[in-house]
Specification:
single chain, 952 residues, alpha+beta, twelve-stranded mixed β-sheet, nine-stranded mixed β-sheet, 14% strand, flat
Length: 952
């Protein structure tokens, strides 16, 4: 019997696929694309998290990322031979190899850069007279006998240091080398000798036999301790005066570690193990954090001490690097989850709509089978078999494409996602069809959304969903969207919840305006308006499922577009806050002024629209806070209340003094979208009139000033005396502004530069797009003490981590997928009723309807549903952004990882283009499809559509 069934089912499937190859191909393509997107998403997330973790570890300072295992010198109670043996290369190599083998997974070492040896931890004073002594303080040097010097350096002069004859703790002469930078700064030459004191007052003579150049100066071998590569001029902490001295490192021969045991420089034995991030993946981050914690103070440390000695300690900053990566990942994940859940929901609804379209097209066929005795199980089984034949291979192919095209990632999340897509499509069509044909149905009443009254079951189900969705949104609004790390499904489902509420409400409200518009349309002479409204009310294209798909797609696209626009705006604002204008020319020091010739030359370059010379003086001491002072003289540019500003007045002990030309600065501020600057209040008249050249200002001069809110609250309304390098005078706050282009500090005081005793500008702000090469050439012609900063170059710094770039790409893909699924939902909703519209046009053409009237009829019919979807999409997108914006901070996506960037909160703002363009696209597509359908129907004869016995 089973063989008979198998033989009967095969011809059915082949027959169905041959009968409707277009529908089967379209379904397979849709499933292929959806399965590819579903499988690609988790792999893309894994890929950017993996690249982000590797990038953060690889680019971290070697002093932080390297795992250093160190222990004090062998105890004095041990025999001298044993102490020396423990500091020689064979024993250090043996211990180092054992430590590498004992590293717990996923931590792996970069074996090519592992270094071990003996080093001094207490710098020793070098008294040689030929060494440089700034401020008459001799240099202090450390000494290290480290392995692998010949593998990581190139000999530039002299010879490699050696440990000939065997070095012991009693040796008093050893050989060493220094790097080129150390030799240049400390005036060291080949053949020079340096004396290293010992505890027995018998100094060790270190002969410099060679000068070396690091092969990879930024590698962990040289950067774990930067003094190995480069000396440093540091302040003397024990001096009461600001004096500096040089400190550096001398590289001893590899096997000369025993000689350091006789010094009082506190030698230690060490093993430096740099991590190898190439084998790490994104999910390894949490395990890596636990492993590092175990090595520092857990079971891992016990294993290290078993190998290296009971006094060994593990020190590393790798844990902080991994934790910073985890914080960024946790901050980005909720934002990405919103896009994933939104697009996933849209795709699921579109797949269900596809199943509904297929079921509607085959309704008569399956009703005939049911009326002739076909069982629900048999019909459902046949539908499942013919669907699985096309859907399952398409899902597998989508998974394969995702694995091949998307970077490395775990395979099983993508496999589950692709399998879910295939399962949904395979089950949706048989289940929907089976539910429609539980009872044999006769052709009869048509669906009419205007006059129809939904059943009680449907009303109860919709009310239940509505109450649950409203309750979830209310809870989300009360609780807030900040998850404190990790992903919250309730937060991520906000677009779905809002779209579900809007769809249920709009579907119930949709018939009301149609009923109101139908009556006046019926009184008009033309039939087009009345027929279009009547058709719009009877069309199933305005059901809850198509509307839900459109609202979800539009809301997700609007949210994604707003995220991308917010990232761009945040980077633009941060670049402007850092540079101050499109370009900036300033001195390398705070007191370096710009020559007049430089200002004229740069201001006249091609591409420079405007220039504003500014004098900036940092860290000007502010007077004590005025009693009851406030910022009551604020202008429209000010922000916050006087009470808020007064609360911050105590923090404005110092401020930046900015001297400007009010007119040029006001133009520049207006050009760059900064707060309006009250230039008229800084006129240099009366007591603040410009001083004659060479005249010294008196402290009784009162200059009007525009201040930051905190500084204004500190100074109050009355004139207050300030002492600056530009002169001593009194300032009276006449206005406030929240931001100034010249400085990034939040505490500042702006005055008219013409009123200052010292007027020469220190900074030139430029508006426009000058050629960077010509600008730098013009500046360099005036000396090397001036710096050029470009806003465009500063802006480019903010896209520097794979995690940020990967998250942006996912959001761009989400916006594109949302727009695509929205258009597909429109097409599916219109295709579902396409046969009815073709038949309607054919019948009306027999009654004299022209082609132009047919186009208008279909366009007017599609307009109410398109406007409903567009308006609902605008509302849903706005509501989603308003709901999630309090808990969405775009700093991790926009600015994280860039030194010196403004890391203040970056709130999510509604982007009008992201809201309006997809909604307008829905209306335009609906009108275009209606026009194309009317044109195509006009090319076919009425006989083709109006067949005898056709019940449509």
């Amino acid at each position: 019997m089973s063989n008979d069934k198998r033989a009967a089912s095969a011809p059915w499937i082949r027959t169905r696929l041959r009968t409707a190859p277009g529908a089967a191909t379209a379904l397979a393509v849709l499933v292929l694309v959806t399965a590819f997107l579903a499988a690609a998403f988790p792999r893309a997330v894994d890929a950017y998290e993996t690249k982000g973790l590797r990038h953060d570890i690889a680019t971290a300072d070697a002093g932080r990322s390297t795992v250093e295992i160190a222990r004090p010198q062998p105890g004095l109670e041990l025999p001298q031979e044993q102490r020396e043996a423990e500091t020689r290369s064979p024993e250090l190599t043996r211990v180092g190899e054992a430590l590498l083998k004992a590293l717990p997974a996923p931590l792996r070492a970069d074996a090519s850069s592992v270094a071990y040896g003996v080093r001094t931890t207490k710098p020793s004073v070098a008294t040689e007279p030929w060494l440089p002594k700034p401020d008459a303080v001799p240099p202090k040097l450390t000494y290290v006998a480290q392995s692998g010097l010949k593998d990581h350096a190139t000999l530039t002069s002299g010879a490699w240091p050696t440990a000939s004859g065997g070095v012991t703790a009693d040796s008093r002469a050893v050989q060493g080398a220094v790097t080129e930078e150390t030799a240049a700064e400390l005036k060291v030459k080949v053949g020079a000798t340096i004396t290293l004191p010992t505890a027995a007052q018998e100094p060790i003579t270190v002969t410099i036999t060679g000068i070396v150049a690091p092969r990879d100066p930024k590698g962990s071998y040289w950067s774990a301790d930067p003094l190995l590569r480069s000396p440093s001029l540091v302040p003397d902490p024990g001096s009461s005066f600001p004096v500096n001295f040089w400190t550096g490192t001398v590289l001893l021969a590899e096997d000369t570690g025993p000689v350091l045991l006789s010094t009082a420089a506190e030698p230690v034995v060490f093993w430096r193990i740099p991590p190898d991030p190439t084998g790490l993946t994104g999910p390894d981050g949490s395990r890596l954090t636990s492993v590092i914690a175990s090595l520092e103070s857990g079971p891992g440390l016990l294993e290290v001490r078993r190998i290296a000695g009971g006094t060994a300690v593990v020190g590393t900053g790798l844990g902080t690097v991994v934790e910073a990566n985890a914080r960024m990942r946790d901050a980005i994940s909720p934002v990405i989850a919103v896009a994933a859940l939104g697009i996933g929901s849209v795709a699921a609804v579109v797949l269900l709509m596809t199943g509904a379209l297929i079921a509607a097209r085959r309704r008569n066929e399956l009703a005939l089978m049911r009326s002739r005795g076909g069982s629900l199980r048999g019909i459902g089984g046949r539908l499942l078999a013919e669907t699985a034949v096309t859907v399952l291979p398409a899902s597998a192919l989508g998974l394969l494409l995702a694995v091949l095209l998307v970077g490395e990632g775990r395979w099983w999340p993508g496999a589950l996602a692709a399998a879910g897509v295939g399962l949904l499509v395979c089950v949706a069509l048989p289940v929907r069809t089976t539910l429609q044909h539980i009872r044999p149905t006769l052709h009869g009443a048509r669906e009419d959304m205007v006059s129809a009254r939904p059943s009680r079951r449907r009303t109860v189900a919709e009310l239940t969903l509505l109450v649950l969705a409203v309750g979830a949104v209310t809870a989300l609004r009360r609780r807030g969207t900040s998850t404190g790390g990790g992903t919250d499904l309730l937060v991520s489902a906000a677009p779905v919840l809002v779209a579900l509420i809007a769809a249920l409400v709009l579907v119930r409200l949709y018939p009301l305006p149609l009923r109101l518009a139908t009556r006046p349309m019926a009184r008009l002479r033309g039939a087009i308006g009345f027929l279009s409204l009547a058709r719009a009310g009877r069309s199933s294209a305005g059901g809850a499922l198509p509307l839900l798909a459109l609202l979800l797609a539009l809301a997700t696209a609007a949210f994604g577009g707003s995220v991308i626009a917010g990232i761009g705006d945040a980077r633009d604002d941060a670049a402007l806050a850092s540079v101050g204008a499109d370009a900036r020319v300033s001195g390398m020091g705070d007191r370096v002024t710009l020559p007049d010739e430089l200002v004229r030359t740069v201001s006249g370059l091609d591409g420079v629209r405007d220039a504003a010379p500014v004098r900036v003086e940092y860290s000007v001491a502010m007077p004590e806070a005025a009693a009851g002072g406030d910022a009551g003289t604020g202008t429209a540019a000010g922000t916050g209340t006087a009470g808020d500003d007064a609360a911050a007045a105590g923090d404005a002990a110092t401020a930046a003094l900015v001297g400007v030309e009010p007119a040029s600065y006001a133009r520049l501020a207006r050009t760059h979208g900064l707060p309006a600057f009250p230039a008229a209040r800084l006129r240099a008249t009366g007591p603040s009139a410009p001083l004659p050249e060479g005249t010294k200002a008196g402290p009784e001069r009162i200059l009007p000033a525009v201040a930051s809110p905190a500084v204004a609250a500190r100074l109050g309304k009355e004139p207050r005396a300030v002492r600056t390098l530009s002169g001593d005078f009194q300032v009276q706050v006449v206005g406030t502004t929240a931001q100034v282009a010249a400085v990034s500090s939040t505490d500042f005081l702006i005055v008219n530069a013409a009123s200052l005793e010292q007027k020469a500008p220190t900074t030139l702000l430029l508006a426009g797009a000058p050629d960077p090469g010509k600008l730098r050439a013009a500046v360099d012609a005036n000396g090397k003490k001036f710096v050029v900063q470009l806003r465009s170059e500063e802006r480019a710094r903010y896209v520097n981590t794979p995690m940020q770039a990967g998250a942006e790409r996912i959001y761009l893909a989400a916006v594109a997928a949302g727009a695509g699924y929205a258009l597909l939902a429109v097409l599916l909703s219109l295709l579902q009723t396409a046969p009815e519209r073709k038949t309607l046009l054919a019948r009306l053409r027999t009654m004299g309807l022209t082609t132009a009237q047919g186009r208008r009829l279909l366009a007017f019919e599609a307009t109410p549903q398109a406007l409903l979807a567009a308006g609902g999409g605008l509302f849903t997108g706005w509501a989603t952004i308003a709901l999630l914006s309090p808990g969405v901070d775009l700093v991790p996506l926009a600015l994280a990882g860039v030194a010196g960037s403004d890391t203040g909160p970056v709130a999510l703002r509604t982007d009008l283009w992201s809201l309006g363009l997809p909604a307008a696209g829905v209306v335009a597509l609906a009108a275009a499809v209606a026009g194309v359908q009317a044109w195509w129907a006009s090319r076919r004869g009425s006989i083709t559509e109006l067949r005898a016995g056709d019940s449509r």
